Amino acid sequence: MEMEQSVSDSSYRISKSWMINCVMLLSMMVQLLLTFGGALRYRSGSSVLQLVVWLGYMSADAMAIYVLGVMVHFQSRAIFGIWAPILLSHLGGPDTISAYSTPDNELWLRHLFTMLYQISVAVYVVYLSQLGGYLLAAAVLLLVVGISKYAERIMALRYSSLSQIVSSADPMNVFMQLEGERCDYLVMGLKQWRKSRNVKVTITDVWNSEGKELTENYMLCLSYALFKMNKRRYVNLYLHERYYNRTRDFLFAEELSHIPSPQKIFTVAEMELKFLYDLLFSKSSGTAFSKLGMVMRLVNICLIGITGFLIYRELASQRVVEETLYTQRMVAYALLSVAIVLEIVQFCRILTSDWSMVWLICARIQYIDNSCGRIGLDLYMAMLIQIVIQISSRFRKYCRGKYWKDQIAQYSIIDSCSHISPSIWKLTKFLHLTSFVTSWYNHTEPVEDDLKIFLVEQLKQRCSTEEDVENCRTQLMSYDFGLEVNQCEDLKWASQQDQEHLILHWHIATTICEMQREAKPSSNMQDQEIKRNIDISRTLSRYCAYLLVSTSKLLPLHPDIESVKHMDVHNELIRLADLGYNRMNTYERYSTLGHGAKLARELQQKPEQLRWKIISDYWGGVMIFYALKNKASVHAERLTVGGEFLTLLWAIVGHMGVGDQ
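Request: output the structure for the sequence above.
Response:
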């Protein structure tokens, strides 16, 4: 009986030991996944990637906490004293993702208490392992690394919470208020500018240091300065500069911003939003992307390297009797190897990051100013930093990808209905799966330069005639502006509706006009202006339909009413399918679809060139109107799924001082 009990206990210990081995390796793989997956999600809209990163983020802490608990209750082995500190590093997570969504940042205090508890558990496991000699020294060094990485994650969460963003953004508010119309866009030195105006670096200083050329370094520093200003809009602080003409003209007056083209304006907005993403969802400038963060990475690399040497020296001299011990030894080598590789990768990523480049550029300018042209330590430091900038810039060409997915989503209500039979549609309604089914018919297209140029032209056109900022904002908020410019007072009824009806009416009308043109080609098929307006109208119409159906939180409307209106249109289109979609143009029922068809008939009475000019101007006005709405938290969440085209426009409009407060 005792022999059977002994065999049973031995089998239990072996199975439990193998289970711990597997979970340790799985935790290591999750860290690899989060390191590289977290770095991709801001420029990829792949739902598979988002699901994988979400599963990794949710399971990473659970696995580490579970294994630490098992180690405490398991008959302790010496190797657990090495593994427990490594699990603390896993709980700290990689630099590329500290929070999956913005609410995670507000839970930093809960994570702090969890950290204190898990550190005590890890120390207790090291104590139970009864290590000595080199292994004890290795365990202590790994504890230092694990605690520092875990604490860094808590600091990142706290730094990204709303209260801390308000605290960090308020000095910029004071700066803009006191400087007034003479204010320049501040890149570095915000904390010290009151004590000495010589320590601050402005965007003009960067322009002069770059030889007055539009370099990537200049655009990077400009985007960082705009990011520091836009943080106030994210936390709803008052923008004192909104009444300054300089603010409104900055992005569109080349002599002020030195940006020659609309495409470059959007590029600056992309860079700016990447800074916001790093602040909210990764270990930001307060932790990893800082001088202290770079020093900590170097220290961690050295400590893990020393630890690996000590462990290998101690374990290699021991004779392995059990196969289980040999496996655990191999697992320990794998964990340490991956840990040091990840630290090296993250150090290189920090060194080539946008944050580091901005800091290096500003440091070089400050050293040059301090040298006053004299040969000395300051000038040599400036030369050394310039060499580092050049080396880093070369690596950035290969390491840095796009700043966002650079795609615009498209959805056509009429096209999706033509592929869904009435019986399937009734079933999806019964199962409340309409949103899921309609998402099958979403697709993305590359954002063309013509679209960017068109929207910037719309902004200029609506603001160029008004010197007062409030009047400019009124022009931007007006749907009728495009109709007035094109002298189409008879179509104003179509812009006097609520938001969901406006989108549906004009989307249906645009689609019908497009179908009519394809059915009856005109002599103007090769006209480039008409073709451009048609492409812009189609793209913006389908994008707004996508926003209405899939991302309605970005729009200023009730979160549920849009699904009701969308469903009504679908029901009508399903009934219309029996008659044939070619009869849609003559559909006269008093409904959303009927109003869209009526608008299409009135538009078709206009000359073709004017018709598509009216439609494109209208959709341009709609996009600007939605960009004015300060849905900052929703825009921030969209950064984690590859970004949103409307978010870029939101950032640009915000710097004109005309956005909602």
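Residues 2-160 form one domain.
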